[in-house]
Target: DNA-3-methyladenine glycosylase I
Amino acid sequence: MDRIVIGPDGKCRCSWCDAAPEFNTYHDTEWGFPVTDDRRLFEKICLEGFQSGLSWRTILSKRENFRAAFADFDFHRVVQFDETDIARLLQDAGIIRHRGKIEATINNAQRACEMVEREGSLAAYFWRFEPDPTEIATPQTMSTSPTSVALSKDLKKRGWKFVGPTTVFAFMQAMGLVNDHAKGCFLRPKIEDIRKSFVRPL
Model:
């Protein structure tokens, strides 16, 4: 139960919600809900890359700025970014001005386009890596998993950048490939019910 906090509404939530007021809404409406939308999947894996070495609160507070800067994470548009766009982004105080991460996002847009051509969609690819629920015996006790290691390795082989096992595991948690809501969190059983009727992409 040490991974649980009681919110102002009396509901039990994952303890990380206590770190910032805006986390409650993110937790209650996004984190852990299964996602099949390619744009959202691309956005999240890119933002997780930007988070590397930083806090999610920093990234979440700048998310709308990131969306504006990166064409709402439409990878078909981001792939067209050039040196002029990189220079523009490096001057954008609303995002994380890290050349390597900016260039990785543009690179990953190209890799995403290639993946859609080969696999049909990003969702079809990523959901192939949905782990067996027994892989995570106790929620929120792992920062990587055997599946996140395998997915990271495969993404790197395909040319993606800033997709280490920890980054990929955080992506899997957020996009619902695993239900890592803490035991006792009011959302854990709700997510389980959603997962039972969720249609995995082919």
